[in-house]
Design brief:
By secondary structure, this protein is mostly helical. It has 16 helices and no strands.
């Protein structure tokens, strides 16, 4: 990226003009709130899954099949959202999906059969997938403008939102029905969208104008890095690299989805935890991920991409073996926390690299694989739990985390990790 002050002057027609200068801090805050909203709503839903399971009289297999509705809706929408972002802008699509996702979270408590639950989760999943691609594409735009690897901080907000959503869900689980609880989340989500949405749209428009338009961004970024700017078509050779990062994201997101949907049930049914304590288990996992992601920028600058991926995957594998097979509640909670620290920065690094390589289409492709892992994991765990046991099924999280660690090494040895677009001296895209 060229110097933003110089580009703003050139785009405005000369030093005599004063173009609208975006506030990157306000833009970052508004976008961070949407990441937090996404985690908050998703966690609010998952901690009420045991109650919804009882309400719909679903077996573990039937619940797993109903949860597949989330996966199907998300995958279908993710493949379309990249095009919508290219046409209308990632920031606009983020705001629209934020409002619609807030409305959809109130639908599951209205169902009384596994079939009806699966249908409404299809809608919820479609909107969850849409906002996931849109806000990550917007974050890639922001990272490119800021020229620092701050993507983990946005995902930290998602984890923090999940922690708060799960914590509140645990507190009200015994006193509020799922309908009242999730309907209140709808009101909170709409209020946040109405507050942060206008700021996000206003400051992103200033950023586009201040940067001199997409043409200047494309030429400058391509000249500096050899990579296409956000929104440009992906070169044919980069598709394999995007797919590799998408698979890395899938391996780790599988664990996030599995712990979110089945972690509380494992603690409650296998280890005898109180429903509030079981919900707190996911909250602890989300807290660990938040801490890991808040330190992610420093970690990436010091260790580089490959070491971050490899060490993170190995740590998560060890943590999840403990979390799934521990004989006591407290050891299992410790395992969940270690798993959260290990998984923290793998997903944001993978999605960010895909976006730098291929713009919104790259984010959409990697997100489809990544969030597909998050959403396909729960039904897979359900089917495995029916045939084996839930603790045994959860060990697959450790297997895939170890796989992500190996793929991180493959990304290095394949020589397919070009320099990052975030600026000189930043080691986010370094293979070391």
């Amino acid at each position: 990226m060229p110097n933003l002050n110089k580009v703003r002057t050139a785009a405005s027609g000369g030093p005599g003009h004063r173009p609208a200068v975006p506030s990157l801090s306000r833009l970052r805050t508004a976008l961070t709130l949407f990441f937090a909203l996404d985690g908050f709503l998703f966690a609010g839903w998952v901690v009420r899954i045991p109650a919804i399971k009882e309400q719909t009289s679903a077996s573990a297999g039937a619940l797993g099949l109903a949860l597949l509705g989330v996966s199907a809706g998300a995958v279908i929408t993710m493949t379309m959202t990249g095009r919508l972002c290219g046409r209308f802008g990632s920031f606009r699509v983020t705001v629209a999906c934020g409002a619609l996702l807030s409305l959809s979270v109130a639908l599951p408590p209205l169902t009384h059969s596994p079939l009806a639950l699966g249908l409404v989760l299809l809608v919820f999943g479609a909107l969850y997938g849409g906002i996931s691609v849109a806000m990550n594409s917007a974050a890639v735009d922001f990272v490119t403008a800021l020229r620092r690897p701050v993507m983990p901080s946005f995902h930290a907000a998602f984890s923090l939102g999940g922690m708060v959503g799960a914590g509140l869900g645990g507190l009200v689980a015994g006193g509020l029905s799922p309908l009242v609880h999730l309907s209140s989340l709808t009101l909170a989500g709409l209020a946040l969208t109405a507050t942060a949405g206008p700021t996000l749209l206003r400051e992103s428009k200033k950023l586009e104008r201040g940067a001199g338009g997409a043409k200047i961004r494309t030429k400058a970024l391509t000249a500096r890095t050899g990579s296409p700017a956000v929104g440009s078509p992906a070169p044919r050779g980069s598709r394999r690299v995007v797919a590799l990062f998408g698979i890395i994201a899938l391996c780790t997101a599988y664990g996030e989805g599995a712990i979110a949907d089945w972690g509380p049930l494992h603690l409650q049914e296998d280890l005898g935890a109180h429903p509030g304590t079981a919900a707190a288990g996911y909250s602890l996992f989300a807290l660990a991920m938040t801490i890991g992601r808040l330190t992610g920028t420093t970690l990436l600058e010091r260790l580089g991409q490959t070491r971050t991926l490899v060490l993170g995957g190995a740590t998560a594998a060890v943590g999840m073996l403990l979390g799934s097979l521990a004989p006591t509640l407290w050891l299992a909670l410790l395992g969940f926390a270690v798993t959260g620290l290990g998984l923290a920065n793998i997903f944001p690094v993978a999605i960010s690299r895909a976006g730098e390589l291929a713009g919104p289409s790259g984010v959409a492709a990697a997100s489809t694989l990544g969030y597909g892992g998050m959403l396909l994991g729960p039904p897979a765990i359900g089917f495995l739990a029916d045939g084996l046991s839930l603790p045994t099924a959860l060990t697959t999280v450790a297997v895939l985390a170890a796989g992500a660690s190996c793929l991180g090494l493959l990304a290095r040895t394949a020589g397919q990790t070009p320099g990052s677009a975030v600026g000189p001296g930043v080691r986010m895209g370094s293979p070391e």
